[in-house]
Design brief:
Oligomer: single chain
Order of helices and strands: HHHH
Distance between the termini: 40 Å
Radius of gyration: 20 Å
Shape: elongated
Length: 98
């Protein structure tokens, strides 16, 4: 399941709850789109994986499918808060600086 690879960040940080919720939802959608293979072991594995992902989805905190607001993210950083404040007034680049 390539959809679940997103939950393994290379830098060692943990995935945010909204990332987990989104990725689990995507994986469940992919599993639901599969046709039965006719192979008992394969179909059983898909059913087991689906149930495990549904349990995980049900255990996620309420609102886990919504990313944090920019204000919440910037609350701990003066630099980020300044960037958020200035960004709406910034003009888009007409060309990329060199």
């Amino acid at each position: 399941m390539s959809a679940l690879d997103e939950l393994r960040p290379e830098d060692g940080t943990e995935a945010a709850p909204y990332q987990v919720s989104s990725t689990v939802g995507h994986a469940l959608d992919e599993l639901a789109a599969l046709d039965a293979s006719g192979l008992t072991d394969a179909d059983s594995y898909v059913a087991t994986l689906t149930r495990a992902l549904e349990r995980l989805r049900d255990e996620l905190p309420a609102g886990a499918d919504t990313p944090p607001s920019p204000e919440r993210v910037t609350a701990r950083s003066g630099t980020l808060a300044t960037s958020l404040h200035l960004a709406p007034a910034a003009r888009p680049w007409t060309h990329r600086p060199r």
